[in-house]
Amino acid sequence: DRAARLIEAQRRFWREPGADHQLVVLHPRPEAGGRLEAAAVQQALVMYAPQDLRVPGERFDFLLTHEHLHNWMPDRFGPMTYTGRNDESARYWFSEGFTDYYTHRVLLQAGLWSLDDYAGAINRKLERYRRSPALRADNQQVAASFFTDPAMAELPYARGELLALRWNTALRARGHLGLDPVMRGLMLPPAQAQRQGPLSKPLITHRLLAALRPTLGETPLQDLSQFIEQGLPFELSDTTLGPCFRLAPDAAAEQPRYEAVADGLNQPRCRAWIGIGGDAPD
Fold first, then answer.
1. Less packed terminus of the chain by CB within 10 Å, N or C?
2. What is the mean pLDDT of each run of 10 residues along the chain (282 residues)?
């Protein structure tokens, strides 16, 4: 039942009917406290679950939504690498980072997560990002070591999500409705989408930059160069997560943490940012 709600939430978010069925299998691991992992193939998802996994629960919700979305995106947004290049790891900031960004947004917009749930997940992610021994690694280093160095492997997830948050904030500050309608406009019919494409066909990352240019000019390309290619750390502020959250001191943490604003779900700007109170820009 929980899996059905999570998948239906994604379909509503993208205004996409999706497949007729999904098979979700929990494969038990004998130990408690172990890693929760998943593998998605076509319309099936296998989750390798430790004994203490809670269903529903944050880890289950996040991983199922992430893997389902991660498996669906290439079939609707087109190639992330050229045929024969085998260099998709250079664009994991999009395929993994944007997937994390939309996993969090889907759960929040559907009401399956609260503002506090969202803030908690982002805070944990940001703490790992700030502490990463590979924080300033450039994208070439990340791509080369993604499968062998856990610290490198985490970076695209954080960098891509922070970049999506940055672009969503910049769009809304200019009177645009944000990143969601831009992404929906880039969706392709299934017959036209490919996971790998010829050199004559633009990658989804190229199409995204082109779609942002009319509103944001060359700023997204500069952001990509600085924060992804060069590996400069992101600067975080009160506006990074949008009007539903603010930075607040935390005596138990080295850095301020995000917390939900009081009564955020009843504030029009917050509801609009989430996508549950109309489409008004900030």
1. N
2. 91 81 82 76 84 87 90 86 89 96 96 95 95 96 95 96 97 95 92 82 95 98 98 93 90 81 93 79 64
Cα–Cα nearest to 235, from 133, 136, 141, 166: 166
Q: What is the pLDDT of residue 277?
A: 66
Spell out a b/e string for 131-157, using b for 16 or more CB atoms within 10 Å of the CB, else e.
ebebeebebeebbebbeebeebbbbbb
Q: In terms of DSSP bridges, do strands 44-49 and 37-41 run parallel, antiparallel, or are they unpaired? A: antiparallel
Q: What is the helix (H) or strand (E) element at residue 41, kind and residue range?
A: strand 37-41
pLDDT of residue 176: 94
Cβ 133 vs Cβ 36: under 8 Å: no
- In a 13 Å sphere around the CA of 101, the CA atoms on its Cβ side amount to 26
Report the C-alpha dihedral over residues 171, 177, 180, 182, rounded to 10 degrees: -70
Could you give the CA distance from residue 239 to residue 56 in angstroms, rounded to a whole number? 31
By DSSP bridging, strand 37-41 and strand 23-28 are unpaired
97, 215, 219, 221, 257 from 122: Cα distances, Å? 12, 27, 24, 25, 9
The tally of CA atoms less than 13 A away on the side-chain side of residue 10 is: 26
Whole-number Å distance between alpha carbons of 10 and 255: 32
Q: How far is CA 67 from CA 44, 60, 140, in A?
A: 10, 11, 25
Distance in angstroms between the alpha carbons of the first and the last residue of the chain: 36
Token look-up 């609707």 returns 76
